[in-house]
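Input C-alpha cells:
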C-alpha cells in the first residue's frame, strides 16, 4: 500500500498513539533500503540531503538533515542560510543543537526544528562527557528544563539521548514535543538508531542502546578480499600476457590492414 510522506502535523497527531522508527543513514543505498522497509524518519547528512537523487531513493521518509559538527562555530544567520538551503532541497525539518536563540530564529521562519536534550554530543562537556544524563533528580530536572526551553523556542521535536527510561517517559507525557529516543526507553514517541549499528558496520564502540540485526562488516571484509584477489589476478594476467586476449580487442579486415601498412610504408 502506497504511503504519503508525513508532515509535522502528522507526527504531532501520532504522539502517544504509536512508536515511530528513525534511522541515521549516510548513503543512497541505505536511504532506499529504509524507504522500502517502511522507516518513518531519517536523519541524513547535509550532502545526502542535497543530492538530487535522494528523493528518488526515499520519497516518503520524513527527512531531518543533521550533522553533529556542521554547525559548530556558525552564527545564527549562517545556520539559517543552511537551513533554508536544506529545506529547499526537500528537507522536512532540520536538526539543531545550537542555542534557543538560534532555534527560535529558525522557527520564526517557519522551519521545523528538531532539538536535542540529555546527552548532547557536541555539548557533552557540560554534563560530564559521554555518559547518561538524568540519573539523579537534579540532572533529570536539567533534562526537563532543556525540553521546556525547546518548547519555548518553537521546536517541534527533540532527540532525547541516554536518559533513564522512567525519566524520559515522565517527560514525554508532559510535553507536546515529539520525543525521539536514542537510548531513552520505549516511553517516547520514536526510536532512533544509526544504520551502521543496525547493520553491524560499526567497528568501534557499540552503544548500549544499539541493537545489531546483521553482520555486514564480515560481508564487507569478504568482498574486500575478493576485490584484492581479482585485482591480483588481473595484474598477473597482464604480466603473463593472458590479458588482453584476442577476444578483448577490436579486429580489422586483413585487406584493410594491408592498405594501412602500405600507407605507413610511404610515410617519412
Amino acid at each position: 500500500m502506497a504511503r504519503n510522506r508525513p508532515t509535522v502535523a502528522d507526527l504531532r497527531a501520532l504522539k502517544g498513539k504509536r512508536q515511530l522508527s528513525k534511522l541515521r543513514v549516510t548513503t543512497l543505498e541505505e536511504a532506499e533500503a529504509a524507504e522500502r522497509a517502511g522507516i518513518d524518519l531519517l536523519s541524513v547528512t547535509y550532502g545526502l540531503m542535497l543530492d538530487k537523487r535522494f528523493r528518488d531513493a526515499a520519497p516518503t521518509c520524513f527527512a531531518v538533515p543533521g550533522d553533529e559538527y556542521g554547525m559548530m562555530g556558525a552564527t545564527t544567520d549562517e545556520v539559517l542560510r543552511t537551513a533554508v538551503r536544506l529545506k529547499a532541497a526537500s528537507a522536512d525539518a532540520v536538526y539543531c543543537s545550537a542555542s534557543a536563540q538560534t532555534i527560535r530564529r529558525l522557527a520564526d521562519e517557519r522551519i521545523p526544528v528538531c532539538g536535542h536534550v540529555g546527552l548532547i554530543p557536541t555539548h557533552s562537556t557540560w554534563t560530564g562527557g559521554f555518559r547518561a544524563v538524568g540519573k539523579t533528580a537534579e540532572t533529570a530536572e536539567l533534562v526537563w528544563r532543556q525540553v521546556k526551553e525547546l518548547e519555548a523556542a518553537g521546536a517541534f521535536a527533540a532527540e532525547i539521548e541516554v536518559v533513564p527510561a522512567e525519566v524520559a517517559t515522565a517527560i514525554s507525557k508532559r510535553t507536546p514535543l515529539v520525543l525521539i529516543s536514542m537510548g531513552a526507553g520505549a516511553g517516547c514517541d520514536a526510536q532512533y538508531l544509526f544504520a551502521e549499528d543496525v547493520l553491524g558496520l560499526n567497528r568501534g564502540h557499540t552503544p548500549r542502546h544499539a541493537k545489531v540485526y546483521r553482520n555486514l562488516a564480515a560481508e564487507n571484509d569478504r568482498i574486500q578480499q575478493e576485490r584484492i584477489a581479482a585485482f591480483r589476478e588481473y595484474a598477473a594476467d597482464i604480466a603473463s600476457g593472458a590479458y588482453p586476449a584476442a577476444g578483448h580487442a577490436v579486429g580489422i579486415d586483413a585487406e584493410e590492414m594491408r592498405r594501412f601498412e602500405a600507407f605507413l610504408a610511404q610515410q617519412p
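The CA atoms of residues 136 and 164 lie 10 Å apart. The first strand starts at residue 20 and ends at 25.
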